[in-house]
Amino acid sequence: MSMVSKRAAALMAFSVLLFCCYGVPQAGAQEVALTITIKNHRFQPAEIKAPAGKPIKLTVKNEDPTPEEFESKALRVEKVIAGNSEGVFNLRPLQPGRYRFVGEYNEATAQGHLVVE
User: Fold this and answer.
1) 106, 68 Cβ separation under 8 angstroms
2) Distance between CA atoms of 42 and 34, rounded to whole angstroms?
3) Which of 58, 63, 65, 106 is close enough to 110 for a disulfide, judged by CB 3.0 to 4.6 Å?
4) What is the helix (H) or strand (E) element at residue 112, kind and residue range?
5) How far, rounded to the nearest angstrom, does the alpha carbon of residue 58 sit from its chain's CA centroid?
6) pLDDT-derived band of residue 1, with 50, 70 and 90 as boundaries?
């Protein structure tokens, strides 16, 4: 067996091992879709819930005429959402916990939490 075919066989065996241990992720198969709205510089609802261990598609609709910066250090996301538009965030599967988010331009009123259980 040549050196190239030995490497190919080793790579194939390693790939099979990874597949057996971790499987193949199913894109969007278990994704949880959540939507929150910014209106009058407040999040509605201010608290949303999601199951642990599943990817999350979070849609943030800004119904105010002014832009708002959706930010969460805990979720590692930050994005300016123009007035009367929306932004979408694809979040990784999360551990149980309480993840704070804010509207940075109106942080005194635009506050909320994602509760993962």
Assistant:
1) yes
2) 17
3) 106
4) strand 111-116
5) 6
6) low
Edge-to-edge order in the sheet of strand 47-50:
47-50, 111-116, 97-103, 68-72, 77-81
pLDDT single digits (tens) 6-53: 665 555 555 544 444 444 444 545 899 999 999 999 999 999 999 999
Q: Do 102 and 111 form a contact (C-beta atoms < 8 A)?
A: yes
> Is this model's pTM higher than 0.85 or not?
no
Complete domains list, the chain, with CATH: 32-116 (2.60.40.420)
Token readout for 98 is 């309480």
Tokens of 113: 């939490």
